[in-house]
Amino acid sequence: MNTPEAPDQQTSQSIETADCSSSSSQGLEMAAASATDGVAAAALSSVLQRVKQAAERSGRVPDRIRVVAVSKTKPVTILRQVYDAGHRCFGENYVQELIEKAPQLPEDIQWHFIGNLQNNKVKPLLTAVPNLAMVETVDDEKIANNLNRVIGNIGRKPLKVFIQVNTSGEESKFGVEPAGCLDLAKHVTRNCPNLEFCGMMTIGMPDYTSTPENFKTLANCRSDVCKALGIAEQQTELSMGMSGDFELAIEMGSTNVRVGSTIFGAREYPKKQTA
Q1: Quick one: how many helices (H) and strands (E) in the chain?
Q2: pTM (2 decimals)?
Q3: Could you tell me if residue 86 is left (phi over 0), alpha (psi between -120 and 50 degrees) or otherwise beta?
Q4: Where along the sequence do coiled-coil regions lie (predicted)?
Q5: What domains does the chain contain, in order, with CATH numbers?
Q6: 162 φψ region: left (φ > 0), alpha (ψ -120 to 50), beta (else)
Q7: Residues 6+ apart with CB under 8 A from 12
Q8: 189 three-state secondary structure
Q9: What pairing do the DSSP bridges indicate for beta strands 195-201 and 66-70?
Q10: DSSP code of 157?
């Protein structure tokens, strides 16, 4: 399996200025990519090795663990380096950024949307990114219903989804409360034929000493859901673990880890400027 608006009307002069700004920004992107040529690919190799070691420590098969390369704010040139190294699974937090990047990269990429998804962004996302493989952040019936409806209307194949669970109880985190996880899973499986329920996702707390408790909560949610729905736990994924704690997450049963800064670095790359 290692395999997250419309421009204003401008005068001809402002368009020319914007073009110059865009060219300058693109030049900075290319310079940044050149300076880091091969670094992201090497970092990916290191991450995959750490995944393998964590899986082996817990008696698991490394190939059953998916690494989502979280590429938010990173330019297409850097993503292409990781793609050329053989990786195919990328994650984005922002709809507009994903819509802009996807057409510039090969169609065999498996995009995961891992940010909070607003209902008014569902149709643009599904229409513009036909190789969207997963939405990891379904956290209420309304967003599930909207995804289901739009998929039916545009005639694309069923979309894989995770239910996002707020296991830490933090107000800053999105996600259904653990107590509501089963009801949402029942709704998705019974009332949303265009969605394929694949498992559950959580975001651990920044203080990694308390993260194991969050991960245990998600595993317990999976057990309850699988028992109630008659689904084998081995067929239901756990998406937990990020750059700071993905090895611990794997040891605790995660099948899907989201790794960004460890692969791409924490550096923010230049964005295109507008007049």
Answers
A1: 10, 8
A2: 0.83
A3: left
A4: none
A5: 12-264 (3.20.20.10)
A6: beta
A7: none
A8: helix
A9: unpaired
A10: P
